[in-house]
């Protein structure tokens, strides 16, 4: 990583250390020997499934709502400082977050807000309000940096600083992390474990929680998987200078998410959703979230859980015999 990387400069990160060169980097993947491609696949893998035999209070399904309160950090990450781009993010703090919180209160639905530290520094009262109203705040990087492009030391510095900042602002130490890139660098897993996180919510290997495995070794880290299907940003994000345009009607997204919930309810599993206050918080989009919560609340046996609560229930399965969990690999 070069020193002109905006994420490192904004965070005041120390000198970068380049990773060791990969002797196969210049070799086409179809020429890789088996140990090379197998090593990449097995570096971070889904281990044992952690779906419990029953949910708390006999619930039929777990519903884990999450919101990534990125606000102004998306343009700031890339060194973009135009008022127009920053205003798009500011909408999330000025309008979207409050609307979301009011809706969650109406349905008595606790949620998890993953917040970049810079976003929390810009809007500390908002971060504290999340906790005050019974929600969870999780780590989402320092300035929504592209963590997969960082040197190991820089990535660890930023995550540690984000963890300390959120703890200072909210008075609660976050137990979970969602990486800004929804991905791991070669050093992310080691950093997450070293800093004591109990769960991650960045990977996509299952519908239900699972244990993360590193090179065949169970790590004890709970993964609460995400997916682009259950994220509002791919459907609604807009950039006037590129081909990035909203391509789905809100009502169509409602249908997709409702079908996802219905399937999770039938399976007795988890319905996890990722949204952003500056995206879902617009009037015509908040309507579909309200209708979705009407649909969800119309079912018996729904457990609304923060990601921390869900991870705690999943983590309890680590002490159970492996046979009681779903297998590592599905046929």
UniProtKB/TrEMBL annotation:
Biological process, per Gene Ontology: carbohydrate metabolic process
Pfam families: Polysacc_deac_1
Residues in the signal sequence: none
Domain of life where this protein originates: Bacteria
InterPro entries: Glyco_hydro/deAcase_b/a-brl, NODB_dom, PgdA-like
Domain NodB homology: 81-331
Single GO MF descriptor: hydrolase activity, acting on carbon-nitrogen (but not peptide) bonds
Listed name of the protein: Polysaccharide deacetylase
Annotated source species: Streptomyces bathyalis
Organism lineage: Bacteria, Bacillati, Actinomycetota, Actinomycetes, Kitasatosporales
């Amino acid at each position: 990583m070069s020193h002109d990387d905006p994420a490192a400069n904004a965070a005041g990160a120390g000198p970068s250390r380049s990773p060791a060169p990969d002797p196969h980097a210049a070799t086409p993947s179809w020429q890789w020997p088996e140990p090379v491609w197998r090593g990449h696949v097995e570096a971070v893998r889904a281990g044992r499934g952690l779906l419990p035999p029953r949910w708390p209070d006999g619930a039929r399904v777990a519903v884990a709502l999450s919101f990534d309160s990125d606000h102004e950090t998306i343009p700031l990450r890339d060194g973009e400082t135009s008022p127009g781009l920053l205003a798009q993010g500011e909408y999330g703090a000025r309008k979207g977050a409050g609307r979301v919180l009011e809706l969650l209160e109406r349905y008595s639905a606790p949620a998890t807000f993953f917040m970049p530290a810079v976003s929390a520094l810009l809007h500390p009262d908002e971060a504290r309000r999340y906790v005050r109203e019974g929600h969870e705040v999780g780590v989402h990087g320092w300035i929504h940096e592209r963590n997969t492009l960082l040197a190991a030391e820089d990535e660890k510095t930023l995550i540690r600083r984000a963890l300390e900042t959120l703890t200072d602002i909210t008075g609660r130490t976050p137990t979970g992390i969602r990486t800004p890139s929804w991905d791991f660098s070669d050093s992310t897993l080691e950093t997450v474990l070293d800093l004591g996180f109990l769960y991650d919510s960045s990977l996509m290997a299952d519908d239900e929680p699972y244990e993360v495995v590193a090179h065949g070794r169970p790590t004890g880290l709970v993964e609460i998987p995400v997916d682009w299907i259950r994220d509002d940003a791919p459907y609604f994000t807009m950039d006037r200078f590129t081909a990035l345009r909203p391509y789905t009607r809100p009502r169509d997204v409602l249908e997709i998410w409702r079908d996802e919930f219905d399937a999770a309810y039938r399976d007795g599993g988890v319905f996890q959703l990722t949204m952003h206050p500056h995206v879902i918080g617009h009037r015509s989009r908040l309507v579909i979230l309200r209708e979705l919560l009407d649909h969800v609340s119309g079912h018996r046996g729904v457990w609304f859980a923060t990601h921390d609560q869900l991870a705690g229930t999943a983590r309890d399965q680590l002490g159970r015999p492996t046979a009681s969990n779903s297998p590592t690999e599905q046929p």
